[in-house]
Write a structure and sequence with these properties.
alpha/beta; TIM Barrel; 7-stranded parallel β-sheet; two-stranded antiparallel sheet; 15 helices; about 10% strand
């Protein structure tokens, strides 16, 4: 099916935006920048909006989620908004008993480690996304020509939370299950992939101009284990977007692999995944996000010089003296110029104690206002 005629990529609002141009290996009108976890955390207006409201409750309140999503665009003049959400939101919508514990992260009431546990997981019906769809539509209506990026956790990371029951440093239980009971792991991965894919699809149909699949824990895997146990589920999740093209008829195109002929660009990002970049792209991504551990010119070399990149300012340097941070940002820009497209971002999320004025200053520097 084609995207709705009212979609921002179809009616032209975001099709020529700097972000989409860079994601599609075209020359943008200005170098695009946005910051992972820009929606929330460091902003005083976010803390005021969230006062007395739980994290997941905020994500599932359409008006509040939209307002939080818009705040950094107003403040920093970044080139994209990313939907204020959390990777466990689709699990909550599917009936999983999960909450965000302050200072800990996602905590589940019960672990999922057996075939019977997987069988008890329920399917996620489209009506479950009504609040997400409303949040996206509200946000897209307010953004104008600025694209909204949809967001979801990758199947491996979500499955890791389900198995471990909470954040883990080494993911021993996950890695044990993969090898000891691969059938159960595969069934769990398929369930999570379909939940993730449906969640992304709902955001795209509601107006998201790009999506990012975030694999927080993939860096815990070797390349062989990633390719065997994680990549198939990620590919399955992204396959939910395969039929969404902004062109009604692709029959006249000689090469359907041309990224310019595709619909919504897909960004894939993980932490500690320097050895996995090619495999992460090959699950169906158009753009690869690179964390702060690997220089962008080396990432471009590993990817064969054909894949747009996103990243990769070290978040730790946001608290460094401006001359140090400025030199680092300019180095990231220089190294990113080797790729066919580059969107400046952090190599992980905004630390909660970051001075918002520093982010604004970085955005101005990226846009060519030498400050």
């Amino acid at each position: 099916m084609a995207l709705p005629q009212s979609h921002p990529l179809v009616d032209g609002r975001t099709a020529d935006s700097p972000l989409i141009a860079a994601y599609r290996s075209r020359t943008p009108s200005r170098r695009p920048v946005w910051f992972m976890r820009q929606a929330g955390r460091s902003l005083p207006e976010y803390r005021a909006a969230r006062e007395g409201v739980g994290m997941l409750d905020a994500c599932l309140d359409p008006a509040l989620a939209s307002e939080i999503t818009l705040q950094p665009v107003r403040r920093h003049d970044v080139d994209a908004a990313i939907l204020f959400s959390d990777i466990v939101v689709p699990l909550r919508l599917a009936g999983v008993d999960v909450d965000i514990a302050p200072g800990i992260g996602p905590v589940l009431a019960a672990q999922v480690r057996t075939a019977d546990d997987v069988a008890r997981l329920r399917d996620l019906a489209p009506p479950s996304f009504a609040r997400i769809t409303e949040a996206v539509q509200l946000t897209v209506g307010a953004l104008g020509s600025t694209p909204l990026i949809g967001f979801a956790g990758a199947p491996f990371t979500l499955a890791a939370y389900l198995v471990e029951g909470k954040p883990s440093r080494d993911h021993l239980a996950v890695r044990t299950l993969m090898h000891a009971d691969p059938e159960t792991w595969t069934a769990l991965g398929a369930w999570v992939a379909d939940v993730t894919g449906a969640f992304l699809r709902a955001q795209v149909l509601a107006g998201a101009s790009a999506v990012q699949l975030f694999d927080s824990w993939a860096g815990a895997l070797s390349l062989a284990d990633y390719e065997r146990f994680a990549a198939p589920a990620s590919a399955r999740a992204l396959s939910h977007l395969d039929d969404l093209s902004h062109l009604d008829d692709l029959s006249h195109l000689d090469d359907l692999s041309d990224v310019n002929s595709r619909g919504v660009p897909i960004v894939h990002f993980g932490t500690g995944t320097s050895e996995l970049l090619v495999a992460m792209r090959d699950v169906g991504a158009d753009v690869i996000g690179v964390d702060y551990r690997l220089p962008l010119d080396e990432a471009n070399r590993r990817l064969g010089g054909v894949t747009p990149l996103q990243g990769n300012i070290d978040p730790a340097l946001l608290a460094a003296p401006w001359p140090v941070l400025r030199a680092h940002v300019l180095d990231v820009i220089e190294r990113g110029s080797a790729a066919p497209g580059h969107v400046v971002n952090l190599g992980h999320g905004v630390p909660p104690d970051t001075d918002p004025d520093v982010l604004t200053r970085v955005a101005r520097l990226v846009h060519g206002d030498d400050v």
